Amino acid sequence: VSYATLHAGWAHLTFNTLVQVLVGLPLEMVHGSLRVGCIYLAGVVAGSLGTSVFDADVYLVGASGGVYALLAAHLANVLINYNTMQFAVVRLFAVAVVATVDMGFAMYDNFTRELMGLPVSYIAHLT
User: Fold this and answer.
1) What parts of the sequence cross the membrane (predicted)?
2) Residue 116 CB coordination number (10 Å)
């Protein structure tokens, strides 16, 4: 679990912090701190387990497993409450853009990691 406190640079830390604030806080206001905290920690643990199974030869840093768990929870929240939620289409679009941009960056970095330094796991994003 402690790997979630480490990050692979300022861009990685900034992205994870922004998503936690922009997605985690609204979820916390609706569903409470305990539920959102459990989802976040489950994502961190799932990211660690997925990396140890599928990509064990790389370093594991960052809270991306927890961040993607928050994104998935927000997506589920919007889909379930679509008819009663304000700006539901905008929220769906925002989650899709954030996830797509981050996964695009992760894939780019994954293919160029030999040139840029130590190999970092991106399987945690998916698991």
Assistant:
1) 6-27, 34-54, 60-80, 87-108
2) 10
Token reading at 91: 């929220």
d(CA 42, CA 16): 16
In angstroms, the CA 123 to CA 125 distance is: 5
Instruction: Output the CA–CA distances (angstroms, integers) from residue 105 to 36, 85, 120, in the order listed.
Output: 26, 30, 13
Three-state DSSP class for residue 104: helix
Q: What is the pLDDT of residues 57-111, one digit of tens each?
A: 777 887 888 888 998 998 888 888 888 888 888 888 888 888 888 778 777 776 7
Structure tokens at 73: 């929870």
Check pLDDT > 80 for residue 1: no
Angle (CA) 114-46-100 rounded to 5° is 60
Tokens in use for 104? 């695009």
Say how many CA atoms lie within 13 Å of 93 toward its Cβ: 4
Residues with active-site annotation = 64, 125
Beta-carbon contacts of 102 under 8 Å, excluding residues fewer than 6 positions away, are: 15, 64, 125
Sign of CA dihedral 17, 125, 95, 39: negative
